[in-house]
Amino acid sequence: MKYAVSIDIGGTNVRVARVGEDYRVAERVSFPTPKTPDECVARITEAVDAFDKKDLVGIGMCCPGPLDLVAGLVIYTPNLDRSWFGYPLTKNLSEATGLPVILENDANLAALAEAVIGKGKGKKSLLYLTVSTGVGLGIVLDGKIFRGAHGFAGEMANACVWEEGPVHGELTRGSIEAVASGTALLSRGRSAGLPVSSAKDVVMLSERGNPTARRLTTEAERYMANFIGILIGAFDPEIVIIGGSVALNVPGYAENIEDMVKQKALPAVAPHVKVVLSDLDGDNGLIGGAAAVFTETE
User: Fold this and answer.
1) Orientation angle between helical segments 253-264 and 211-235, nearest 10 degrees
2) Cβ proximity of 274 and 239 under 8 Å
3) Residue 109, Cβ density class (10 Å: 0-12 exposed, 13-18 middle, ≥19 buried)
4) Which of 5, 40, 258, 298 is most buried, most CB within 10 Å of its CB?
């Protein structure tokens, strides 16, 4: 059996795993994310060297971005030290480990995981949306990640859906992430005077009938439905899969959005709209990293 190394670099921790073609994690290790990318590459290399290296064919990894997926660079990232900005991660890790390296964003890898073992298995086209701290999009067409001409396909967090909508960091006013992400729900809830410390608190208040919280969660769902409707019009996917903490914590999230999308879709399109929640656990990024290696090296 072939194996791939799959790596998930996060703002807090790094996870490194050896994953088989059956998409089972055979070995794994995690450690706090080092401050500098050189330190991180060294720690990852140590982890890979400690694995059983027989039949290893490559490395698939994700890292906070935005990323230049074509050149394998970290363009910049607010979640890591500035020493990561412009860092040639793919090149340096490949040289250190002696293995080919594929760099992807986390939503792309999650989408690929859905395609190989999740609710997108057997589908020729799917969209995966993560609605969590931020909003991310992964696109899989004909079993392959669609990256676009410059590697930025799916970078939709900044897409404006509400011209006079809320401000969120450096993103465009009214962007989908400024309206529908967990961070946005928390920020908007606090600005509205709600006693909340997480997006989940806003959702709980909404479920208990708090009118302000209900307005915020309803707006988030409505604009997400509009956003997904646009994506369906552009890509005509067989299925849209939603994951992330916000989506998983809001009762009926996918069902509500699917209904709203169908109500606004063209009559010919509406019967084909399918929006579902992901049922993969937190390993979807690791599974997707391995899948990227196996699909790229076939």
Assistant:
1) 60
2) yes
3) buried
4) 5
Helices (H) and strands (E) in the chain, counts: 10, 12
Topology of the domain covering 3-105+282-296: Nucleotidyltransferase; domain 5 (3.30.420)
Q: What confidence tens digit (pLDDT) does each residue in 195-234 have?
A: 999 999 999 999 999 999 999 999 999 999 999 999 999 9
Tokens encoding 289: 């990293």
Give me the helix-helix angle, 199-207 and 182-191, nearest 10°. 70
* Portions of the chain given CATH number 3.30.420.40: 3-105+282-296, 119-277
Architecture of domain 119-277: 2-Layer Sandwich (3.30)
Tell me, yes or no, if the pTM score tops 0.70. yes
User: Rounded distance, CA 73 to CA 270, Å?
Assistant: 40
Pairing relationship of beta strands 125-131 and 239-243 according to DSSP bridges: parallel
Contact at 8 Å (CB) between 15 and 30? yes
CA atoms of 254 and 284, how far apart (whole Å)? 19
